[in-house]
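dumping this here before i forget
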Amino acid sequence: MSAGAPPTRQALAGRALRVGLTGGIASGKSTVAQLFGAQAVPVIDTDQIARALVAPGTALLLQLFDRFGEHLRRPDGSLDRLALRRLVFEDAGQRRALEALLHPAIRERTEALATQLGGPYQIHVIPLLLETRGQARYDRVLVVDCPEALQLARLQSRDGCDAQQARAMLAAQTSRAARLAAADDVILNDAEPAALAPQVAVLHRKYLQLARSPGRTA
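structure:
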């Protein structure tokens, strides 16, 4: 393996089992992550890390305004995240520029937190895990899945966007089929929130067992 290459899954066997939790926008990743956290599982959410990295007054936020425009600055000096999301989802070049700016810092902070938190296994919430080809950094890939029609409805309700904007956001991400093909494990979120807890409980037991297994395979 070259010095710049990501570690293979076999190379991760000497530390806490790491589960990369991903899924399409508005699929329910945060809700699932909270349920794992309720089991005292360390959860690292890269969206939360990104928010901290671009908090008012940070160097990264100033770089972001310089690159993408002062119109993204709210009156209180914070970032208009919804406006930025719409901007980068509509323009692949802008999206790549944002990723180049943020992702190295996010990965560095994620690694520091993972080392600090330990535990038998960890959940790392990474919305763009597949888009950034980060699967090799994880022992397992867990996909939170739901039908695209449900994603669209949730996205419009959550963000107040119209159907065209919602479809553009979905189109900018890896397809549902590609996510499912890359998944080691899947949680289906197409019903009431109460249906998620039993699925999380099953995977919690599975991950604890895998964390004790030398081969970490199933």
